């Protein structure tokens, strides 16, 4: 349908016309889709701006507003919202995005109008197209078909709740869903109880060694998944449909798709396709005869952009499926840290992380499936997401829709607009390698003052978001993303520097230089440690000052014909405009990283953090790239001081405000290089700092000493050889007649500078590596005066620090505001040749810039500063409470230690007493047993004696009888006579009297 609607008539691409067209497209995008609105208006806006030289920004803002942000209000606007509609989100719920969308759209339209106005003033006189053709729409009845599409979608939704719905399924599954919900609530209660009892444990969220906590959390997540699965099954079973290849397609979907197909056929029948012819490149174009009669031919409608998008997104979806499956695995997957990052310790949503992660992943995995993944991660229940979790759904929707504009693959209309723009001769390319190609074109086409701002501000803000996401949300995934960041850092440094060598336009050279500097910041990010973060932030500050200063110097180099953009235009500038050449030299030397400038200190901190984390090979690549960059930076310096100009140029007078700004920037670059600790310690940039008269100057002296130690012997040896003498003679001849061999002279000077740069950074790496070796500990301790010390500040020191920070921010504000403002004034074309025009001051432009800045400042104050300040205050309160809690815990720990020691002493004393009592008791028991044994032995002995006496007496009596009988018998035999009783008794008594009387 969109291809069957054509806007005809004479359109001139002025700021007002372009702003109105983009505003109309933004308003239409929510009702006819971002793709439809983009396809409807991209060709008219391209035709209107075909005559302009500076036009790329029109396509950029068109993509942001029409192809992305404009589709925020209805499911028809953008595919992610339509997928949410298919999952049960109400059609008009997305109107909740209106309060977020409106200020963004207004702000972008204002910025576009201002930017396009500045660019429009640089254009020449518009060509005369002859008679003006009134504006009119052809194929307007296709709008009715678009209304029919909206009606078909709404009608199909009503059918889903009507005759095609099996209402008995809800009753059957209600008990099962209720049981699952009770289980979910019970697991949630257990998890909250556990977390409440461990509030002091700040690492509980990502500590997977805490099996008890992760089991409770996993139980709750699985219970939530079970509820969502049952609800999805209920929805699936309720919708009557037909099975196609094992997949049940609801009847209302078939009817809707059938109506949509019928509407498309009707549109093609009444606005048919056209006959095409091929040009010399093989591209299809409509026959000239059909341009007036066929709407699609006049609209330039072709299938190539659609086919190109289809081929690209087939590959994207194939490569994207594994990544999305890993995310869908949730807490059990290898990317569980991402899932945990969007939830609190009790599985409640963190809306800010939902926005950032949905947006970042939408930029590279396409926003529609990424939306579905985080929609399901948030529970997947449309009733809950439209109710108590409405802000979560809002964050997911804004992240998918708004940040899908970041890349061509983030949203399908982006690539289609790009394809159509290139098809119409707009050289619009995709920015960090491999997304870097837009930067040189934008830098070259934009006014230098605007290029100065976009080279610094957006880069700093982007890397701030980079650091926040990778070092906070994805901190536990370092092992997975460090490899990617390391590769990107190496590629970005190398590609940026190598391509910059081939540039002859100084703005394009600075553009590729900016790409290379993004690689240096990535080196700090790849270090993934505290020093890496601090060095990245410090380098971003340094980069902003020196890069804006370089662009400011380009603004100063103006003639009546405009800016001097070719490097050859700077020949002899050091003698004609010594102040301008001095500014440019300072900035270029700092960008190249020569001491004593801020660029050298910034690179030193970055390389140091990388060495400390083991990224030695990345530091070597960085040092080599730094040496490469010295070539094209010094090429400009050589041209300024050692070249005669090919054409005499009459440079304009310096704008005073710009001179003030560049003076401050130059002083800042040199001061930071000489006194880095003054700028580092106030912002707490690093965990270590250099003493002004200690470590920093020791580095410089050591570098110079090693350079002299290496360079002087080589020079002496070289000069002593015959080849060396011949070369010296030739060089002297070149020096006497520089015009005879300017290329050789340039090559010689730049070659010496390259050698010096390589020596400096080789020695720098040597110093850094020495700190990791046992032999280098003494050297390291000399260089790092206060290494690895946490900075503690008193109240007085804090006030001093805030005063320093105020001066730093004032410097940044002056440089970043006065350079663009003065640049506008210098670039303004005016017929007035009065005093103000001669000195380059245009108060109207300055006031406009100031008002614009105040508007942006008010918007930021209203919508950003308060929230950021609140977050910082909450963070400060949280840190303070943690410190107080730690101090209280320390005091409690000391008290418990004292009690423990006292208790141990008491236990020891008590134990010794018990041991002694046990010993005494044992001795007493032993004595009692011995006494009892003796007593029992005495009783037994007495009893034995009595028994022996009794047995003895019995034995004597028996013996007496026996003896008597024997004696009588013996006596009778002896005496030979019979003994009577009296004789017998007499013999016995006599015998007994002779027996012994002692006891046996």
Automatic annotation (TrEMBL):
<feature type="transmembrane region" description="Helical">
    <location>
        <begin position="482"/>
        <end position="503"/>
    </location>
</feature>
<dbReference type="Pfam" id="PF16980">
    <property type="entry name" value="CitMHS_2"/>
</dbReference>
<feature type="transmembrane region" description="Helical">
    <location>
        <begin position="654"/>
        <end position="676"/>
    </location>
</feature>
<feature type="transmembrane region" description="Helical">
    <location>
        <begin position="509"/>
        <end position="528"/>
    </location>
</feature>
<feature type="transmembrane region" description="Helical">
    <location>
        <begin position="747"/>
        <end position="769"/>
    </location>
</feature>
<feature type="domain" description="V-ATPase proteolipid subunit C-like">
    <location>
        <begin position="706"/>
        <end position="769"/>
    </location>
</feature>
<feature type="transmembrane region" description="Helical">
    <location>
        <begin position="805"/>
        <end position="826"/>
    </location>
</feature>
<keyword id="KW-0813">Transport</keyword>
<dbReference type="InterPro" id="IPR002379">
    <property type="entry name" value="ATPase_proteolipid_c-like_dom"/>
</dbReference>
<protein>
    <recommendedName>
        <fullName>ATPase protein 9</fullName>
    </recommendedName>
</protein>
<feature type="transmembrane region" description="Helical">
    <location>
        <begin position="697"/>
        <end position="719"/>
    </location>
</feature>
<dbReference type="InterPro" id="IPR005864">
    <property type="entry name" value="ATP_synth_F0_bsu_bac"/>
</dbReference>
<feature type="transmembrane region" description="Helical">
    <location>
        <begin position="91"/>
        <end position="115"/>
    </location>
</feature>
<dbReference type="GO" id="GO:0033177">
    <property type="term" value="C:proton-transporting two-sector ATPase complex, proton-transporting domain"/>
</dbReference>
<dbReference type="InterPro" id="IPR031566">
    <property type="entry name" value="CitMHS_2"/>
</dbReference>
<feature type="transmembrane region" description="Helical">
    <location>
        <begin position="386"/>
        <end position="409"/>
    </location>
</feature>
<dbReference type="GO" id="GO:0008137">
    <property type="term" value="F:NADH dehydrogenase (ubiquinone) activity"/>
</dbReference>
<keyword id="KW-0066">ATP synthesis</keyword>
<dbReference type="GO" id="GO:0008289">
    <property type="term" value="F:lipid binding"/>
</dbReference>
<comment type="function">
    <text>F(1)F(0) ATP synthase produces ATP from ADP in the presence of a proton or sodium gradient. F-type ATPases consist of two structural domains, F(1) containing the extramembraneous catalytic core and F(0) containing the membrane proton channel, linked together by a central stalk and a peripheral stalk. During catalysis, ATP synthesis in the catalytic domain of F(1) is coupled via a rotary mechanism of the central stalk subunits to proton translocation.</text>
</comment>
<feature type="transmembrane region" description="Helical">
    <location>
        <begin position="540"/>
        <end position="559"/>
    </location>
</feature>
<dbReference type="InterPro" id="IPR010096">
    <property type="entry name" value="NADH-Q_OxRdtase_suN/2"/>
</dbReference>
<dbReference type="GO" id="GO:0045259">
    <property type="term" value="C:proton-transporting ATP synthase complex"/>
</dbReference>
<keyword id="KW-1133">Transmembrane helix</keyword>
<dbReference type="GO" id="GO:0042773">
    <property type="term" value="P:ATP synthesis coupled electron transport"/>
</dbReference>
<dbReference type="InterPro" id="IPR038662">
    <property type="entry name" value="ATP_synth_F0_csu_sf"/>
</dbReference>
<dbReference type="InterPro" id="IPR000454">
    <property type="entry name" value="ATP_synth_F0_csu"/>
</dbReference>
<keyword id="KW-0406">Ion transport</keyword>
<dbReference type="InterPro" id="IPR002146">
    <property type="entry name" value="ATP_synth_b/b'su_bac/chlpt"/>
</dbReference>
<dbReference type="InterPro" id="IPR035921">
    <property type="entry name" value="F/V-ATP_Csub_sf"/>
</dbReference>
<keyword id="KW-0446">Lipid-binding</keyword>
<feature type="transmembrane region" description="Helical">
    <location>
        <begin position="579"/>
        <end position="602"/>
    </location>
</feature>
<feature type="transmembrane region" description="Helical">
    <location>
        <begin position="135"/>
        <end position="155"/>
    </location>
</feature>
<keyword id="KW-0472">Membrane</keyword>
<dbReference type="Pfam" id="PF00137">
    <property type="entry name" value="ATP-synt_C"/>
</dbReference>
<keyword id="KW-0175">Coiled coil</keyword>
<keyword id="KW-0375">Hydrogen ion transport</keyword>
<feature type="transmembrane region" description="Helical">
    <location>
        <begin position="258"/>
        <end position="274"/>
    </location>
</feature>
<feature type="transmembrane region" description="Helical">
    <location>
        <begin position="20"/>
        <end position="42"/>
    </location>
</feature>
<feature type="coiled-coil region">
    <location>
        <begin position="876"/>
        <end position="910"/>
    </location>
</feature>
<feature type="transmembrane region" description="Helical">
    <location>
        <begin position="846"/>
        <end position="865"/>
    </location>
</feature>
<dbReference type="GO" id="GO:0015986">
    <property type="term" value="P:proton motive force-driven ATP synthesis"/>
</dbReference>
């Amino acid at each position: 349908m969109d291809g069957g609607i054509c806007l005809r008539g004479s359109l001139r691409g002025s700021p007002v016309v372009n702003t109105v067209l983009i505003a109309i497209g933004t308003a239409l995008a929510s009702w006819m889709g971002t793709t439809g609105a983009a396809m409807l208006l991209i060709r008219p806006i391209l035709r209107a701006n075909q005559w302009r030289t500076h036009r790329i920004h029109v396509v950029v803002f068109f993509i942001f507003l029409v192809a992305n942000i404009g589709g925020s209000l209805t499911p028809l606007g953008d595919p992610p919202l339509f997928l949410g509609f298919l999952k049960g989100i109400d059609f008009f719920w997305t109107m909740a995005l209106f309060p977020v969308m409106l200020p963004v759209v207004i702000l972008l339209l204002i910025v576009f109008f201002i930017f396009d106005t500045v660019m429009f003033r640089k254009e020449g006189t518009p060509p005369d197209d002859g008679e003006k053709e009134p504006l009119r729409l052809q194929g307007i009845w296709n709008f009715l078909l678009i209304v029919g599409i909206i009606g078909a979608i709404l009608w199909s939704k009503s059918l889903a709740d009507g005759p095609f719905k099996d209402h008995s399924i809800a009753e059957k599954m209600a008990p099962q869903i209720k049981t699952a919900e009770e289980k979910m609530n019970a697991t949630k209660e257990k998890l909250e109880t556990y977390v409440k009892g461990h509030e002091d444990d700040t690492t509980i969220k990502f500590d997977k060694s805490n099996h008890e906590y992760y089991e409770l959390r996993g139980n709750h997540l699985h219970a939530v998944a079970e509820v969502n699965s049952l609800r999805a099954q209920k929805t699936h079973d309720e919708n009557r449909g037909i099975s196609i290849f094992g997949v049940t397609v609801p009847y209302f979907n078939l009817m809707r798709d059938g109506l949509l197909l019928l509407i498309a056929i009707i549109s093609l029948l009444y606005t048919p396709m056209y006959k095409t012819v091929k040009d010399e490149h093989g591209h299809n174009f409509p026959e000239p005869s059909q341009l007036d009669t066929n709407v699609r031919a006049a609209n330039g409608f072709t299938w190539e952009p659609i086919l190109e998008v289809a081929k690209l997104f087939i590959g994207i979806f194939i490569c994207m499926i594994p990544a999305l499956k890993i995310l869908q695995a949730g807490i059990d997957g290898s990317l569980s840290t991402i899932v945990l990052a969007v939830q609190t310790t009790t599985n409640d949503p963190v809306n800010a992380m939902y926005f950032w992660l949905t947006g970042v992943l939408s930029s590279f995995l396409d926003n529609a499936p990424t939306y579905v993944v985080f929609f399901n991660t948030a529970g997947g229940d449309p009733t809950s997401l439209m109710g108590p979790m409405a802000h979560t759904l809002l964050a997911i929707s804004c992240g998918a829709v708004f940040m899908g504009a970041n890349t061509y693959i983030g949203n399908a209309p982006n690539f289609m607009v790009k394809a159509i723009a290139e098809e119409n001769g707009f050289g619009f390319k995709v920015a960090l390698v491999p997304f870097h190609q837009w930067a040189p074109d934008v830098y070259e086409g934009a006014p230098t003052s605007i290029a100065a701002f976009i080279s610094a501000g957006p880069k700093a803000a982007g890397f701030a978001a980079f650091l926040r996401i990778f070092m906070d949300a994805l901190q536990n995934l370092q092992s997975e993303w460090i490899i990617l960041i390391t590769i990107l850092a190496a590629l970005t440094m190398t590609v940026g520097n190598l391509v910059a060598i081939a540039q002859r336009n100084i703005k394009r050279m600075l553009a590729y230089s900016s790409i290379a500097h993004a690689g240096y910041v990535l080196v700090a990010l790849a270090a993934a440690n505290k020093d890496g973060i601090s060095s990245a932030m410090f380098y971003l500050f340094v980069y902003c000052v020196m890069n804006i200063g370089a662009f400011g110097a380009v603004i100063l180099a103006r003639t009546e014909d405009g800016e001097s953009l070719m490097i050859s235009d700077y020949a002899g500038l050091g003698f004609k405009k010594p102040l301008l050449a001095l500014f440019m030299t300072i900035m270029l030397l700092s960008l190249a990283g020569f001491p004593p400038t801020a660029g050298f200190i910034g690179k030193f901190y970055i390389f140091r953090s990388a060495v400390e984390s083991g990224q030695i090979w990345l530091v070597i690549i960085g040092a080599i790239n730094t040496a490469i960059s010295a070539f094209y930076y010094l090429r400009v310096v050589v041209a300024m001081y050692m070249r005669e100009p090919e054409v005499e140029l009459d440079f304009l007078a310096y704008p005073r405000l710009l001179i003030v700004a560049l003076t401050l920037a130059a002083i800042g670059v040199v001061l930071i290089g000489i006194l880095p600790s003054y700028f580092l310690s106030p912002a707490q940039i690093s965990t270590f700092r250099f003493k002004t008269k200690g470590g920093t100057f020791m580095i410089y002296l050591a570098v110079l000493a090693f350079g002299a130690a290496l360079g002087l012997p080589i020079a002496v040896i070289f000069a002593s050889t015959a080849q060396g003498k011949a070369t010296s003679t030739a060089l002297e001849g070149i020096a006497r007649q520089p015009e005879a061999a300017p290329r050789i002279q340039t090559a010689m000077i730049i070659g010496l500078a390259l050698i010096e740069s390589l020596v400096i950074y080789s020695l720098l790496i040597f110093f850094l590596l020495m700190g990791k070796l046992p032999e280098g500990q003494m050297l390291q301790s000399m260089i790092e005066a206060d290494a690895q010390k946490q900075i503690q500040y008193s109240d007085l020191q804090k006030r001093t620090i805030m005063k320093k920070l105020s001066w730093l921010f004032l410097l940044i504000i002056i440089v970043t505001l006065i350079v663009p403002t003065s640049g506008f004034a210098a670039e303004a074309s005016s017929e007035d040749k009065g005093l103000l025009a001669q000195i380059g001051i245009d108060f109207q432009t300055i006031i406009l810039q100031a008002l614009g800045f105040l508007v942006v400042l008010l918007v930021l104050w209203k919508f950003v500063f308060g929230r950021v300040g609140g977050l910082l205050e909450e963070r400060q309160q949280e840190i303070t409470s943690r410190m107080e809690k730690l101090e209280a815990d320390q005091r409690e720990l000391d008290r418990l230690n004292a009690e423990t020691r006292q208790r141990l002493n008491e236990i020891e004393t008590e134990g010794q007493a018990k041991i002694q009592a046990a010993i005494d008791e044992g001795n007493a028991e032993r004595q009692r047993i011995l006494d009892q044994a003796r007593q029992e032995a005495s009783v037994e002995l007495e009893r034995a004696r009595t028994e022996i006496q009794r047995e003895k007496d019995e034995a004597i009596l028996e013996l007496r009888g026996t003896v008597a009988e024997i004696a009588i018998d013996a006596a009778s035999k002896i005496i030979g006579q019979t003994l009577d009783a009296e004789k017998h008794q007499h013999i016995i008594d006599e015998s007994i009297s002779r027996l012994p009387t002692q006891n046996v």
